[in-house]
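Suppose a classmate hands you a notebook page containing two proteins, each written out with its sequence and a corresponding row of structure tokens. How would you begin to make sense of it? This section walks through that situation. The first entry is reproduced here exactly as it would appear on such a page.
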Amino acid sequence: MRQNSTAPRNNKLKPSSNLIMNGSVRVRVIRTLLAIQNGQSLSSVLDPLLNSLHDGDKGFAHALLLTTLRQWHALARLLDSLADNPIDEVEVRTTIQVGLVQLLYLEVADHAAIHETVEAAKEIEFAHSTGLVNAILRKVAKNPSKFRKKCDKKHSLPNWLAYQLKQDWSEQYDELTQGLRHPAPMFLRVNSAVTSVEDYQHALDGAEIDADIVELTTGFKVASSSGSATSTTLSIKGLRLHQSTAVNALPDFALGTASVQDMHAQLAAPIINKALIAKLIAEKSDTENTNNEIHILDACAAPGGKLAHWLELISANDESSLFHVKQDNNEISSETSPAITDIKVTAIDNEAPRIERIRENLQRLNLSQHDLQQANNSIALNIVCADATRWQYGKNKKAATNEPVFDAILLDSPCTATGVIRRHPDISILRTEEDIEQTALLQADILHNLWPQLKAGGYLLYVTCSILKQENVEQMQDFITHHNDAVVIEFTDDCNWGIEQAIGRQCLPIDSASGDGFYYALLQKTAE
């Protein structure tokens, strides 16, 4: 039987719009945590918190907030075991949990942690709870190592999610649930059109920023022009920093030389780009193929990291460029190579603020439409605010049918984001068990809408940052059951990332690369 979290849900919280950023550092963190429990995301409340503080307090506030979120459910269970009677007031529970984090994880001096937390209870107008707050924190302060071990013994996830992970990943369960409690490393993607990974690592060394090169190898089977299946491989290099660093400290970051992107997320653009090149190569012997234009789609594109990576590859002066197609190490001759003269890139997302975020990121990387036109007028970029469940290229949203127009589609599908809990620990509070089913239905709607718009022979790369099989391999199994023209492209043993699934591969945030939890499945559309 599935169990719900022991922490009670409070329906009497003040509206999140009433978030007030004043008072002591601890009070501001408590109010921020209350806003998150009331439905606001960490990304929406973190900057207001930090911007309200003096520089000297920002580090402590950030550590206190993030650590409390990462240990939230374990702290809730510990609190329940410490209290003689149930504590129903979410403000009081939150205040005590903030105190516990100081004692157990941040090594704040006992007297400071207890006194300041008790004062915080008064400041948020819960003075009646000060005796309880004081008693529980003093009890823990007498033997913090004992209570730290108790807190660390099990997972720090809502019980419904822990149950589901046990079902999906029984062999990896213990390592996985513990791994999700810790911060994720910071990765950089280097713009290969500007510099090499090795040269940028040297630049980081000069800035006294330590980083290791991480290399992921990917292999998959594609159809050749003769109809047989051949294997293709590619290598992706990124940088893993030893310590997270402010982006303004990174060499030439403002000039677009590097981007912050998880290592496993860096697989997406190279895979779909390589598959698209394979499609062009397979078509090269078709003498009737006079199409000099290709059209690609990045669906659900915000905040634009994967789109930017794909544009970097397209415009690079190497074998990854669609203007310079190669097969293995042999360049295709101009007599047989499809002459690509125009590339249309369409990117969609359904929220205007997220569209603006895409534009901002592309502008920093010198990949806006204006930049692309100046560098190469053969690349046309169009960014559209649209609902991927209904949007159809070139038609209004009421159109009853759609037509195949895209040679390749990158679908970074909406998901519960359970694979990035290390970076966004608020997910474990905000997500509910019902979200899985609703998200899976949304994913299916998007797939069913986009698939008819893919040309025969074209590829669709399905990506999520989830570690739940219902959103990943099970979604793909259901999709191919209902689409006879969908062929699964198998990843080969050349891959040094992820776990092989019945369809696709699943990255878990516990492998040697230390990347986030991502799922990848590559599909090709056959002629009907």
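The notebook's second entry, a different protein, reads as follows.
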Amino acid sequence: MSTSEAKARQEAPRDADLTAEILRNALCVAAEEASIVVVRSAYSTFIVEGADAAAAILDADGRLIAHSLSTALIQCASLRSALPYVIKAHPLGTMAPGDVFVLNDVYQGGIHANDLLVFRPVFMDGEPRYFTGTLIHVADLSGLSAGGMASDATDVYLEGLQLPPVRIATADGLVDDLVRVLAANSRTPEKLVGDLRALIAGVNVAARRLEEIAESHTPDGLARGIDAYLAHTEHRMRTGLAALPQGTHRGEYRLDSGHTIRVAVTVDGSGGVVVDFDGTDEQVPHPINSGFSQTHGGVMYAVRCFVDPSLPMNEGCFAPVDVRMPAGSLVNCTPPFPGGGRFGTVAAAEEAIFAALTSASPGSGGVAASGILQAFSISGARRPWLHMSFDLGGMGARDGYDGPDATGALFGGGRNIIPQAEPIEARLPVRIEEVSLIPGSGGAGRHRGGLGTRTVIRMLDDARVDTRGDRLLRPPPGAAGGEPGRAGGYYRERPDGTREPLGAKATRQPLAAGEALVVETSGGGGYGDPAERDPEAIRRDLADGRVTKEGA
């Protein structure tokens, strides 16, 4: 073999790898552009200012190919889970270019009534080969409480209008009759229709970008490139999973309601993992259950915390993880049980997996629990307006690290973790008086838990408030001798400054003009004996105002 031939053979794999990486990034950029289009086109403040949107590219086999960078894993898991139901309801052979489908059914891969999932088939060589998908939480779609936040819903029908996979648009435009039905079931119809158009704009943009990529690489070249990089991701994922302690490891976590999520994580030692929730409590007629897509997303978040964080999130990550969720349990609700308050259960599932896998590591004292998101909505009592948000608690500490402040979603999210004061005040009759960290709210330990937050929103018009929180009655516990984080709560503040608790799951509570809603999130648990905390770290805590006195 000549020197030139040997050099060519060495360079060929590198060229192929480079081409695959260029292709992967082009697809991710297409999904990200779709997400940006949705955010910039939406009407709801929650979307425009919170960027709570997701976009993905999938193939006709339901494989997740790429998703937007800001997407929470539970959102991309929902898009991935729902597509097979769209195809089942509308077989590929019945689809036409320009068709767009929408659903929100929690039992068919959706999240809850207010999260609309939109899909558009992308045709190549006359067949639907791929799908683009977008997802956002629309302002309102019926239900007991504005924004779909009713914590007293005893079945799914009280959470909002239910949508199986239906065709919402064709090449000729929107299906007007269906749009009118949706608008008639919303307290904010203009925002709902505007948000729906934004979702459709997003899938259209992603579809055009995908067609451009196929034109550049050819349809067959695109398919080969996708197969190659999904296989590469799966190989890396299996390599990471193979390094976990072999065997079956168990963990559990209890909700404020007293219900428990239990999990057994079995690591086969060769790159496969089974996550089994057998033994988890049965579903209940309250919105604390989770749909299967949301639990699956939480599992993927938790498992990915133990592998290479630079792994791209696509089908290659899902393939080695077998998730078993008993039907009719808290982690896989069935009709007609509600699923709108799923995030407490999803976060509990994640904590149970953390407990299982860290307990398997020699010398590990576990991971302290986090203060998760606290959702709430404020709606007009005399005229229609709506503000929705979720505030995040502190993350739990772990061996060697303090917990980060106010990032305890455990599965990501948009910018709405921090209230955008100016645009909210410009659009709604409220005043944001305070957004701050709560000193001393992180659990004490050799490593401190992250701090929770305090948000004060003053009403300038009569309103109603709905709350949906957890880890408020049972604050996030510490680990390895660390103390629990400070429990948060929701409060009504009277004009004279007096406060009274509203409850972790209050519904349609009146707030008069001049009164304020105070939202305090829980701090994360601490790790290790507090007496072992480094004196320099204690001095730094005091200087930074993280604690108010030594030992606090």
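A careful reader of the second entry would note: The chain has a mean pLDDT of 92.
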